[in-house]
Each structure stands twice: as structure tokens, then as C-alpha cells.
Amino acid sequence: MANSASYPGPSSDYPVIANFDSAHLTIGAGVAIFHLATARVVVCYHSTERYWFLPKGRRDAGEATNTGAEREGFEESGYRNRLLPIPLRHRQPQAHNASTLSSPFVTEPVWTQLKPVSRATQYLLFWYVAETLPPDLDASLTQQTVVENGAYQVPPPFPPETTVKQRLAGEEDGYEPLRHQNTGVNEEEQLYESYLLPLDEAVKKLRGTIMADVVVRGWEAVRARKAMEET
Question: Is residue 222 classed as helix, strand or coil in its secondary structure?
Fold first, then answer.
């Protein structure tokens, strides 16, 4: 797969000053959901408007943005997922007086977009990197969903002491992540199809959008994390 050095991806825009009150701002999040064992990523397809996209959507009121990203990823694609901590250049400070050494891996957005919804309303969209869930965790959350009458179940975070290699040891060879059916919450989302695609194919289908670069940078970060853990 092309890396960010060879792939003609987008560059960051210049900083801007803009102000929006709560009635004119929508905050959302999206995810590139990787199946780490097979180097594939979840891509959605709008069955009537015929375009490809990564799952994304508005976070619920009072919901953490990262949790909203995982939930929207599940609702729009059918794949349960959780954010994957990755090595990433960012500008967020470390926690003050942290009791343990800071991890080199974070779950910060890899891209942030400002998109107009209308002449008066702004959309602030954060893009994250995630992984499909281990089979036992997926099954456990699915059972809990049944117990709680269909309520979405927030997955536990990626275990901080677990390496990617250790994580993948929990999957049998040939395991195929489960795509849950009828997870869309409205008529529009019921029109979405989703597929686990090889990375190059996904990037081609998303070419010309920030989403393609989310996939490229996300997988580069996954590879970088694995290399760091092996040294």
C-alpha cells in the first residue's frame, strides 16, 4: 500500500478564527476501522447515491467524541470497534502529575475537518483510527445488547499493557470479523452497505477525500506501533 510519502494526500489548511454558538455547531466523528490481522479496512457504500465513505456521524448530546466515533462506526457499518492507540504527532499536553509514564500511543484524531452544513451552521468532524473487536469481546457485547433491549454497548478500551501481537493471538487463523445486521438507526443508514476491503482498494475508492488519507495514515501508524513494540 502507498505510504504518505508517495501518496498525494491532502495538507493541513491555515489556522482560522471562527466562532459558533451551540445552536449553529454540530460536532461529529468518524473512524477507519482496521482488521489488523488481514490488513483490511471497513468502507461503506451508499446503495442509492453510489459513493464510498468511512462511517461517521454526529455525536449524541453529552457523549464523548471518541465514544461517538465508535458508536457511529458500528451503526453505519455493522462492525463493532474500539479506538486503537497509535504513535501520532499531536499538540495535546500530557496529563499533569500523571502517576505513570506516558504511553507513546494515543487515541487522538488523525484529521479534523470544518464543513459547512448550511450558510449558518458549521460541522466539526474528527477522524479516528479503530480496530475490529476480538471475537470474545464482540460476542460478549452482543449478548449484553440483547439483555438491555438493543441498547448500544460501549466497548472497553484497548488494554494499555497489550501489544498488537498479543492482541492478534486472540484470533484464530482465518477469523472473519462479524458484520452485524440492521444496525442503522434511521432510513438513510439502512441504505448503507459495508465491506472489509484491502487497503489499496479502499484508498482508490476514497481517493480525493480526507478519508483516503485517514486510511493511509492510520495504517502507517499501525505498522509503526508494531515496529516499536518489536524493538
Answer: helix
